[in-house]
Amino acid sequence: MSNLEYAVIILVAAFLLLAIGIILFVTLYQRRVINHQIEMREFNRQKQLELMQASIRSEEEERMRIASELHDDVGATLSSIRLFLTQAGRQADNTKLISQSKDLLDQSIQKIRDISHQLQPGTLQYLGLKKALQSFAETINRAGAIHIDFEITKDAWPEPDAQTSLSVYRIIQELVNNIIKHSGALQVHIAAIISKGHQCIEITHNGKGLMEDEYKELLFKKGALGLKNIENRLKSSNLTLIFPTIVDKKYCIQLRLPPISVNLPNENT
Amino acid sequence: MNLLISIIAISVFSALLPVIIGYKERSILWYYAVIAFIADVFGIFCHYYRYSSSWTVDIFFLLEWLLISQYLILSCFTGKSRFYANIISILVALLYIIQTLVHGLNEPNLQGAAPFYVFYILGAMVAFYRVTQNIEIIQIEKSPIFVFSTGLLLYASGSLIMILLKRYLDEANESFSAYMWIVHDVLNVIKNVAIAFTLHLQKRKPL
């Protein structure tokens, strides 16, 4: 065989092998891409399921808490009142029993008011988010373990709609609870600000804050019900959590509200 | 020699497979299969009666180019890119016509047709790229454009060197050239089977 014939055989074989290689590569690559997409879809489905389960679990826990408070506290107090009133009926001149019953009734009324306030804060409903956050800060301050101050940097901070306000309030409540429980902070500063054209609630504290990767990691772990509820509320109300940046040894986390149609003032952070 | 004749016969009649399968819904590829079959049969007829059939080979190369490039352009390009691809297709066809007229019609202009095969390889690559980008395609082997491009890529990459060097091989060793042409015939069968499968898939799913 001549060199030309050898060259032709080798070149034809090489070209064919290359073509087969390309076809195999495309087939395997496409299969990998599809598998990856299926995995991602399954992963997202799992995540949605977990969030849904967390939401149901949290609802159930809240119901149990209310039931136990009504049964153990309000129920027991009302039973005592009934007992006192029965006794008072037998001893018409015993004013001490009537007075004790009145005290217990006051306690029950306060307890029911507290439960009702926790379920749907009246300040939020009637006075708006800013006042509700202020009232929340004052309530925490009264306990004395930590000091929270609330600040509205601009008057032109429009009130969000009722649904967004409730979500923001609950998220701030959960974040502050987490700060009290886990961060070791002594000072917390909550501010309603306008940042990059968005209304934001900024929480700054001097404790150890949760970083974004830790937050995401915790979201996929069992438990962490509070964080899963935060995630649910973020999604349902189109809110964004901007994760901590450390400024002057202080952690700063921002809750960004969805854009609104009103003209916002320029950035003021 | 019998093996050689058998392979040539299978290669010629394999074009009937897409013609039969795609008869009810005739598309570009169906017309291509019909032209390929007629060209091959006419070539054998001319060879048998010792007529010159080189001009039919030239016409076949040109029609093959126009039909296959049109199919690839319709499958892979949209908007402005389709317009530019059509311009390139026409320019390449015009270049081949001019080259063939200069080359003469006494023997097939195989070297002039080699750029077609280079473009077929490139076209198949573009089609593969489009297939991998299309997230709707879950089973790649059931995508008509992938099946067609697979057949075309094998056919074009195996035939390119043969077409480019056929004249030199014929001069050097005619029997070797005839045996090597078997590769082209086998690849032609693969391409026709791929077209038949493409037409079958297109019955269920358009381009």
Explain this structure:
- The complex is a heterodimer of chains A (about 270) and B (about 210).
- The radius of gyration of chain A is 30 Å and the shape is elongated.
- The model of chain A has no long low-confidence stretch (mean pLDDT about 85).
- Chain A is built from 7 helices and 5 strands.
- Chain A has a 5-stranded mixed beta sheet with strand order 1-2-3-5-4, with helices on one face.
- Chain A is an alpha+beta fold and about 270 residues long.
- The longest helix of chain A has about 90 residues, at about 5-90.
- Chain B is built from 8 helices and no strands.
- Chain B is globular.
- Classes of the chains: A alpha+beta (about 270), B mainly alpha (about 210).
- Chains A and B meet through α1 of A and α6, α7 and α8 of B.
Query: What Rg of chain A, in angstroms, do the CA atoms define?
Result: 30 Å
Low-pLDDT runs of 5+ residues of chain B are none
Structure annotation, total helices of chain B: 8
Number of strands of chain B: 0
Give the number of helices of chain A.
7
Q: What is the H/E string of chain A?
A: HHHHEHEEHHEE
In round numbers, the mean pLDDT of chain A is 83
Q: What is the quaternary state of this protein?
A: heterodimer
Shape summary of chain A: elongated
How much of the sequence lies in strands of chain B comes to under 5%
Quick one: how many beta strands of chain A? 5
Shape, principal axes of CA atoms of chain B: globular
* Beta-strand percentage range of chain A: 5-15%
User: How would a crystallographer describe the biggest sheet of chain B?
Assistant: none
